[in-house]
Amino acid sequence: MFRFILSITAIFMATAAQAEVTNTADNGFTVKHQELVKGSAEEVWKTIIAPARWWNGDHSFSGNADNFYLVAQAGGCFCELLRKTDADNIKSAEGSVQHMRVIFAQNNKALRMSGALGPLQAEAVTGTLTISLQPDGENTGVSFVYKVGGYMEFPVEQIAPAVDGVIGEQLTRLAAVFAPEEEAETEPEDEPEEAEQAE
Fold first, then answer.
1. Nearest residue to 7 via CA among 145, 171, 165
2. Please, are residues 31 and 15 in contact by the beta-carbon 8 Å criterion?
3. Which of 28, 52, 137, 150 is least surrounded, with the fewest CB atoms within 10 Å of its CB?
C-alpha cells in the first residue's frame, strides 16, 4: 500500500509549516518549488529521468525507489514495478503502477508529466507536474510546479500543504545528489584550564 496513504495525517502535520502553495480553489491547488542545483543542465536532466536515484521510496507502493523507472518521451511512463524479487522485470513482476505519464519532454530543458500522485490517484483529479531547467553558469535552476484540479474528497486546505511537502522533498533530494560532501566539522579542543596561582 502506498505509504503516503497510511501516514497522511502525519504528513499534514509535518509539511504544513514548509508549504509553498501558490494558489488554491475549491477544486484544486498549485504548489511551486525552486532550487539552484550544483550541476550542468545535462547532468541534472540525466538524473531527473532516473527517478530511482532521487525520488523517495517512502512515496511508492513498494517502498523501494529501485522499482521506479521513467521513459522520457511523449507517452512515456513514470512507473513503478511491484516486484517479488530484485530479479523481476516488467514481464515477471507481480504488478506495476503508473504514477505519471510524460506529455512533454525536451532534453536538458523541461519535462512535463500528467498524473495524480499518492492518495490523489484514487480521486477524480488531474495533476500536472512541470519540471523546468535553466542554466546558471556551472549550476542549474530547477523548478517543480504541480497543479491539481478536479473532484476530490480531501479538503484542499489539508491536502495542498501535504502534497506541497512531498513535491518539495523530491526537489531537495534531487539537489542533494549534486551537493558536495560537507567537510566534517572538527570540534575545537578545550583549552587547558590555567592552574590557580597561589596567593
1. 165
2. no
3. 137
pLDDT above 50 for 7:
no
**H-helix or E-strand containing 161?**
helix 156-177
pLDDT tens digits, 120-146:
999 999 999 999 999 999 999 999 999
Query: In CATH, which superfamily holds the domain spanning 15-55+100-177?
Result: START domain (3.30.530.20)
- Main-chain phi, psi angles of 106, to 5 degrees: -130, 110
d(CA 180, CA 157): 37
**Calpha distance 30→127 (Å, rounded):** 9
Q: Give CA–CA dist 163/121, Å, rounded.
A: 12
CA-closest candidate to residue 48, choices 108, 103, 89, 4: 108
Dig out the grid coordinates for 180 from the structure: 558536495
pLDDT band for position 39 (50/70/90)?
A: very high
Domain ranges of the chain: 15-55+100-177
Give the span between the Cα atoms of 99 and 192, in whole angstroms. 60
